[in-house]
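Please fill in the sequence for the structure shown.

STRUCTURE ENCODING:
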């Protein structure tokens, strides 16, 4: 049973940077698809970014259009941790950020099918 614990959330000002971490325990996450989702108040959950193993130690990354060029997902398999570096943050980035993982090679951006979810970490972008 894989457990995911997010950390790094907080209050930042527009234009600031923040880095989130998601530590996985209970199994090696190196082969898993790892992703970040977010849910703003009163809104549906939305995809943010994902990292998918395509062979060996090579991973492909995908981003929502709203964060492309500002956010970066990365992973440290030795630490069983995936990160989300968020730069040039905007007020609309305010949300609870969730980490998700699944042993499948592919999962849709809807989040459907992910077997493991963290409890989330709050990110507030406000001046």
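FILLED IN BY: designer on duty
SEQUENCE:
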């Amino acid at each position: 049973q894989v457990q995911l614990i997010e950390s790094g959330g907080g209050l930042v000002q527009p234009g600031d940077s923040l880095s989130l971490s998601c530590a996985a325990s209970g199994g090696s996450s190196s082969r898993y698809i790892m992703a970040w989702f977010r849910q703003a108040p009163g809104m549906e959950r939305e995809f943010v970014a994902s990292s998918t193993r395509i062979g060996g130690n090579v991973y492909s990354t995908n981003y929502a259009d709203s964060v492309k060029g500002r956010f970066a997902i990365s992973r440290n398999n030795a630490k069983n941790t995936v990160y989300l570096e968020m730069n040039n943050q905007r007020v609309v980035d305010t949300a609870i950020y969730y980490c998700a993982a699944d042993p499948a090679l592919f999962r849709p951006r809807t989040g459907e099918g992910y077997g493991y979810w963290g409890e989330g970490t709050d990110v507030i972008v406000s001046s």
